[in-house]
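Researcher: Go.
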Amino acid sequence: MKYRLFVSLLLAVSLLPLGVAPVVAHEPAVGAQGQSGTVPAPAAAQEPFAPAADPVLGAQGVVVLRVYFQDYSATTRYTRAEVEGMFDQLNALWQNIAYGAMSISYQVSDLFQLPDNRSAYVDDGGTVDTCAEDSSGDLSCGAKFTKVLNDAIANSPAGLDWTDVQAVMVVMAETSPTQFHRGQGAGSCNLPMGPGGDVANVGCAIFSENPTETDLQVWGRWAHEIGHAFQQAGPAHPSNYNSEFELLDSNYPGQSGVYEKQDDVAFPGWLPVTKYQTFTPVCSVGPSPCVGVGGGTALLWAMEYDPAGKPNAQAAKAYITDNLYYLISVRRRVNGDELNGGFQGGPPGSNGIPDEGVLIERVEDGASQVVTVMGNPTRNDLWHQGDMYSSLADGIQIGVALMVDDDNYEVRVSYDQEASMQPDVMIYPWTSPPGNTWETTDIWIDSPVNGYNAYRYGTWNALDGNPVPRGNGDDPAIGLVNRLYARVRNVGGAPASNVVVNFEITDPPGLGIAGASGWVNLGTVTPAEFPDLANIDPGEFVDVFIEWTPDIAPPEGGLEGESFAFHTCLRVTIDPVAGETVLGNQDGDMEQENIFYFAVPEAGGAGAVYDAIIHLRNDDFAEPRFFILDWETNLPDWFDVNINDGDLGLELGPGELRDIPITITANAPITAVEAIVGAVEVRASWQDLLVSDLDPADQHPVFEELGGVVVQAALQQETKLNCLVRETDQGQVFVRCQLDGTDPYYDPQNPFAILIQAMGRGPGGQRFFLPDIFLLLRVDENGTAEGTLQLPPVHDVVEVVGLFAGTDVLTSAASGYRALEPQMLYLPLVMREATP
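Model: Structure:
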């Protein structure tokens, strides 16, 4: 059996800015047991935090020094092997937090003695005139913090490798249940790399063995302090220790949330900016270009999962002002969030963070408490299907419309307290269930190749439970009349009247990264064409379409395989209707469908399975821009990817359009496997320069993402189509086709269709389709389809071509052009054996 590698191209657009901000070390906050602080050291030992040029990536070298005080005996709660075991767990946790972007490569020392007594390093909780005065636990105040670090390094044993170290950590031995050290950490310490070594700027942390805590709580506290050591920007504790859903507050051990993973906070680069869906009350607030005006719908996937697993949004950011916004995310007890040491001992699935569901956080930059968990009713209780958060003061409502499954929720944001009584027209966004890819359930193609109202990829249910065509529905066919559909929904509380729907295509057509301005109108429908658009009641939907003929000439070399499909990107926008204020789910930002399919035969050795051009446009028509291309793939190792022959830095003039070649090569036989085998995502970012409004010399370069394309690959069984034609002098064309390669997928209740399409030639000899002259045949169990095409009395038909649309498991196929040949004698289409 032969198979073809099936490749789809998907377009992703993101225009969110990147950036970093400084963190300021501060004295530890006062609170309940489990709290920690970051303590500033003298200027000579610890410098203010500077913006990080890069996120924390790769293996992070950590030296762990096990010490005991001069006035202590050489006894410990944990052996070296046990500490190493804890750091194995810490490494696994931080790999989950960073989605595999970083790991901890640790060295743990033997136990050794510090030169001074405990009192030289530690202030007991309640000690007057120290940072521990109001603390119920012990701390190392002022210079004592760096004294622990410097004395530990100076007395550390031989045999440790101090090259390429990113953090130094000290474990202070403790066996007395009367002692409890809270742990402290900082992201920037100037420390010698070994006894007498050169000084380097590294992360640093100190902590104790704390006998009153469980093992999980102990290494969870260490995980928290390690977070401070790797933290790229502040605040050190976003909610002032008032969140059991944030490792850098009191969720330890556990995940760090979507606030800290923003590109200007603690851990840039781990959760891409494309994973944050934005809403704004007005276009003067929030990032440019303006999207999500008035609120909208977000389909959110739990933030604990690796963002590379699906393109789905994992956070929503709803602006109130430029410095005040809400973050919305889904939390699950997985990938670290099942560990929280304060919530253990329950039945399976109940341990870890105190609740699962939708987390709503209010963020106020510059406030004494930056992040506030909005409780339901307490801050340990999350939001679930049917719940509605409302703030009159901030003018926002956040409703949990649907729990799709444990990992996915539909959330709706509005900025008008009366929004629930208003119309709200929408299209479900792409990157949401059930497809979880760069396609929406509410835009699809209906091609004539397999007959209207029949779809190559079948049907499935949208989130509301109603059936829709799966994926793209069909592949749009060049030169033929395709129907481009949109399902227009009213999810508001009042009828939507006189709805106007606009269909757009990328400009230029084809594969492209062009930003928000790279679209042109294909057509518009109104109640004049579809009377049901005059009034859509709450909870109802209307399916509308335009006829779309891709103006692409048939290839002169012949139509074979997938070559009759046209590859581009489409989107739909809906004009605001009377009385509507929620506009962010109809503006075209996420209401998109990507149309690209490509297939090649099974082959071994070197050979290009995908070779195309991506159009990159500088959407600044006044200034040149320097673009950086980057790409990543999860295709098997036997694929080679080449983007622009390796030249990933490009200077484009104002408004310039540049063609970027992309080639994917298979270097091993393609074998039959099910479903998706991988993808390649190509992104383009342009270089900008941030300048302080107080000091023009204070500048910082950043890259802002313009957008990207995704080529997605799967395997399909290869089909072959051959057609014979004969013309009679009565204006009839007899057609007999044979479709091979469909076993075992033939279904007599739903037989395959073959389109016999008439073609003509222009004055210059160029081919063109005659879309009004066609014949749709059905294939029998032997793969045979036959019939008669009646030609009109006057026609321009010189050839016909047979087209098979394919299915989700079968490649499409074409017969090649077949010239009309006159039938001089009767030629039976079915041969029979002669009988005596």
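Model: The two ends are 40 Å apart (CA to CA).
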